Each structure stands twice: as C-alpha cells, then as structure tokens.
Amino acid sequence: MSQNAHGNPADIQVSPASGYVGAHVRGVRLGDSLDEPTFTAVRRALDRYRVLFFRRQFLTHAQQTRLARRFGPLAPPHPWQPPAPDHPFVHRLITGAGTPRTPEERHRARWRSPGFLSGWHADITAAVDPPSLCVLRAERVTSRGGDTTWADLVTAYEQLSAPLRRLVDELTAEHRYLVGYVPFGVLDTAARTALDAGLVAHHPVVRVLPESGLRALFVNPAFTSHINELTPPESRYVLDLLFAHLTRPEFGVRHHWEAGDVAIWDNRATAHLAPEDHEHLGEEREMYRVFVAGSPAVGPDGRTSAALSGERYQTAVPPEHQAADDPAEQAPDASADRPAGG
C-alpha cells in the first residue's frame, strides 16, 4: 500500500481544523472493517490532533460500536440513563424535543450555572476511570446552530507559565456531579439520580498521557469541585484561573454538524461544550455516542486517581457485552439498526 508524506495510506487526507486542535479526515469509510494501516493512521492522527472529524459516514449502531471497539474495551454509555435498545454501548442524545420556546421558559426549565463556563466538561470525570475516547455521530441535525466546541487541554497546560505548571503538577482535585450545574428550584429527577449515582473521585490536576508522555490539564468546570491541597478561597481562585485559561478561544475548535458526521475525541486531553443555540428552533437534534473505557489518571509525580465513592466505571459492563462477537454487531443489513428518521 502506497503512503503519503505523513506515512499514512495514500488515500487518507488529514487536514488541521484549527491552530492547535482538531483535524478533518478524508478518504476513510468508518463503516468498513478498517485494515491495520488505515486504523494506525487514524490512531496516529487522533494522538496528534486529539479530535477528528469525518463527514458523511452514516454509521449504524453496530458499525459505530465496532469502530469504537477498535480503540479498546468499551465503557457504559451513561451512569444511569439506558442505552439504545439491543445496543448496550450506544447512548442516544436528543435535544430540541419539547424544549420550552420562550426565554423565560428556558430560564426556568434548564439547569443554571453560577458562571458561564459551566457547560464545558470532559465526560464522566466523577468516575475514577472516566472514558478515554468518545465516538459521536450525528443522525439528525438542526437547520442552524448546534455546533460543538472542543478545548485542547494539552496546549492549555503547555501555555501556562513555568511557575504555575510546577504548582499544578503537584495538585489533586475532587470531581463529582452537580458542581457546575445548579438546578433551578427543587432538584429534578435527573439531578437526584446524579446524586444517587455516588460517583466521586480524586484526580491529578495534570495527567500524563501514556502514549506520548504529554501532560494535559485534568480539570473541568462541570465536575471539578475543589483542589484538595489548597484552602477553599485558594482553590476557587486557582480553579477560576484554570477554567478561564483552558477555555480560551485559541485553544479550541468548533464543528458544524451535518447528518452522517462522526467525531472521535480524546476525553483525557480535551473538554467540550455542548450547544444551546438551537433549542428554541423547535427542531430535534439526534446524536449517538459510544465510550471507550479509560483508566485512572497518573500525574507527573506518579500519583493516581482514587475513588472516594462508587466503583470503577468500566465494571458496570457485563462481561458478555465486551465479547467481540456481540450479536448486535453482526447485523448483515447495514440499515437494519439505523434509527427512524436517519
């Protein structure tokens, strides 16, 4: 197989999507069984750019699950919400259905935050072993809006001043649910379920990525409650500084979704911001997500993540569902498990 200048198979094109993070990949059909050179090229691009975008893939649940499993064992799709029927690793994300239309209705219905940064998060960091990768596909999109933004936590760390890097290298922080999101009034069912899930973990504020040795900030506004080694006022000041820093626009990439798109990102090295600019349109946005299992983070000083409450996230997966011959992934008809409306 011929290769291009980057050492990839000749028909694969990887184009940076921003100054630091994200790339568009062309010449790959993710629904096919990727040969080893093609998968290696995708994996290499993901390690370099941390977020990859693939246009017009139109994957089924089974194809998406099979693709994610190439990167490693899979994790539960959500701590408490059910998976898609017959596909234990696929989580349906739908917005815009029955969403309040007026600003006052939205203000009272949505989860409010003490600050504008709260929507930024990495997935499930309240667990001691958050997912390592996420594979997200767009089934239906809105006529406008609905973009997702990612922040590069490796670049964010590297662009801290040297004294501040030395400080955060030695710190740990607590992650739990309902930190960045404060429900309006009485806790709703989802909020109560989040509290009942009991996932609380201590993570290094900086984690080392084992594949590259690069360091990434490992805090996010939605889950990180406080820094353990600091006083409460010091913790608040340092976290506010880090949150404002990691969400600087120049560290980010924004993706405008089209039906059939797939994004794959490193959940250890990025944070992302879900959109809220489409919910008043009266249109549904339907996405499907699969997680690749992660492991406890390791900091620069060798300290690892520790669970304060709850079990390891991956242990919630029944062993039979991790089998490579999962019957749900063997559907010969590519349209057999495509959701209605796709």
In short, what is this structure?
By secondary structure, the chain is an alpha+beta fold. It has one domain (13-316): Double-stranded beta-helix (4-Layer Sandwich), CATH 3.60.130.10. The chain is built from seven helices and 18 strands.
Could you describe the 3D structure shown?
The chain is of the alpha+beta class. It has a single domain, classed as Clavaminate synthase-like (Double-stranded beta-helix). The protein is 20% helix and 23% strand. Strands 1, 2, 3, 4, 5, 7, 15 and 17 form an eight-stranded mixed beta sheet that branches. A four-stranded antiparallel beta sheet has the order 6-16-8-14. The longest helix is centred in the C-terminal third of the chain and has 15 residues.
Give the CATH level 1 class: Alpha Beta
Number of strands: 18
Order of helices and strands: EEHEHEEHEEEHHEHEEEEHEEEEE
**Strand residue content:** 15-25%
Mean pLDDT: 84
Helicity range of the residues? 10-25%
CATH architecture: 4-Layer Sandwich
Number of helical runs?
7
The CATH topology annotation reads as: Double-stranded beta-helix
Write down the domain tally. Answer: 1
User: How many whole angstroms does the radius of gyration measure?
Assistant: 20 Å
Organism: Streptomyces phaeofaciens
Family: Belongs to the TfdA dioxygenase family.
Domain TauD/TfdA-like: 14-290
InterPro entries: AtsK-like, TauD-like_sf, TauD/TfdA-like
